Amino acid sequence: MIVMWFSLLVALALGVGWLFRPAKKVPVSVNYHFTRQCNKTCGFCFHTATTSFRLSEERAKEGMRLLRAAGTRKINFAGGEPFLYKKLLGALLAYCKEIRFESVSVVTNGSLVDRAFLERYGRHIDILAVSCDSFDEQTNIAIGRGSGKQVDQLFAIAGWCAEFGIKFKLNTVVCRLNYEEDMNALVAQLHPFRWKCFQVLMVAGENDSGQTLRDVRRFQITDDEYARFCRRHQHQPSFVAEPNNLMAKSYLILDEYMRFLDRDGRQPSASILDVGVDAALRQVFWDEESFVDRQGVYDWSRAEPADATSSSNGCGASDHALDW
Questions:
Q1: pTM surpassing 0.70?
Q2: Is residue 94 within 8 Å of 50, Cβ to Cβ?
Q3: pLDDT per position as a tens digit, 137-168
Q4: What amino acid positions are annotated as catalytic residues?
Q5: I need a surface site. Which of 106, 233, 238, 274 has the fewest CB within 10 A?
């Protein structure tokens, strides 16, 4: 009798534990920074060239298979500068469409993008996001984007995206050097389907001091200064504000080793290639609520050229420093 009651209690405890265990998180959208190398020296960069490592094509594809099996719908390739390695990038873009990711995107500084690459691989790209921190070349030079025809190249890329049916997106880091700029006229001419305006971000160990490769402190702005930039541009139909408090823990970032980076002050996860996606994801903190608040899921698949999409906007408070 005692054994029978003990067995019943164990079964009940197991049943209750199963009912109340945390729901498995699905990594809906993942950013894979497959290289930290870059051809620019932006002073506020928070993913700096601390290593030169990158995975082989086959190992990177294995990681893509694991993510897709885990429920990832959108994969974004970032860096560093992804277009430094066009052969690898092109192979991964094609493979991700082969295994049926809903959305495949690339974030680039734009300097190495050319028509030939987009003619060959554009059918595999849903979104091409290009950095645009200023339409003033002197400001771009001061930020660290180098000298040259940054703005001319931006308009060329917008045209190629229209030609090949790729959604064209702008990414702007709002900082000390550009927060007073009025970008409305030229953004309207570029007609991006989405314009992300990020508040410049401090990340511990990446850009927070004179000992790190970059030092963001001279670029930082107050929440009020960021809000002023937002108010000046929020009537743009493509405008999406992203203050620090939404950025801080809402992105799932895989580094060059395919480890999830933890923005809650802990170490990176183990590589998904070693322990799998679910186990690696449990090792880090991901704020799904903020992911939803910043419109993490949107119309992210290819559409007809120049199909502008309206987005809601807002300028919230921020956390100025970020510990990984």
A1: yes
A2: no
A3: 999 999 988 777 889 999 999 999 999 999 99
A4: 38, 42, 45
A5: 274
What residues contact 285, with CB distance under 8 A and at least 6 apart? 249, 262, 263, 264, 266
Distance CA 272, CA 281 (A): 8
Residue with tokens 């885990």: 70
Which residue has tokens 């987005």? 311
Instruction: List, for residues 63-106, the tens digit of each pLDDT value.
Output: 999 999 999 999 999 999 999 999 999 999 999 999 999 999 99
Q: Considering only CA atoms, which of 252, 175, 253 is closest in space to residue 214?
A: 175
For 146, the 3-state DSSP assignment is coil
Q: In angstroms, rounded to a whole number, what is the distance separating the alpha carbons of residues 265 and 106?
A: 27
**218 CB neighbour count, 10 Å cutoff:** 10
The C-alpha atoms of residue 323 and residue 154 are separated, in whole angstroms, by: 33
Q: How far apart are CA 39 and CA 55, in angstroms?
A: 19
- Minimal CA–CA distance to 316: which of 251, 226, 233? 226
Q: Which residues pair with 198 in a beta bridge?
A: 173, 242
pLDDT at position 134, please?
A: 95
